[in-house]
Amino acid sequence: MKHQQIEIGDYFLITTKDNKEYEGTIIGMNETVMTIERWNEVKDRLDETDILMTDILMLEGFNDSQTTL
């Protein structure tokens, strides 16, 4: 398993501790919150979603990388 630094613009599948999954591009992050832009199929548009860093279980990149927090 290859680990990498997470940066703005990276595309990930994010799994939270309550087993929710969010697939999207990271558009902002700080010590407490990661903001992703993802496609909302119900509303047929891009939406921004804030995820608390403490809620993130795993980030799966689409270049064979995986990061567990």
Low-confidence stretches: none
Task: Summarize the main sheet.
Answer: 6 strands, antiparallel
The averaged pLDDT comes out at: 86
Number of helices: 0
SSE order, one letter for each helix or strand: EEEEEE
Shape: globular
State which percent range the strand residues make up.
over 45%
Please give the share of residues in helix.
under 10%
Across the major sheet, the strand order is 4-3-2-1-5-6
The structural class is mainly beta
The tally of strands reads 6
End-to-end gap: 14 Å
Radius of gyration: 12 Å
Please characterize this protein's 3D structure:
This protein has 69 residues and is mainly beta. It contains no helices and six strands. The chain has a six-stranded antiparallel β-sheet with strand order 4-3-2-1-5-6, with no helix packed on it. The radius of gyration is 12 Å and the shape is globular.
Keywords:
single chain, 69 residues, mainly beta, six-stranded antiparallel sheet, 0% helix
Secondary structure: elements and pairs:
Blueprint: E1 11-16, E2 21-29, E3 33-40, E4 45-52, E5 56-61, E6 66-68
Antiparallel strand pairs: 1-2, 1-5, 2-3, 3-4, 5-6
Short description:
The protein has 69 residues and is an all-beta fold.
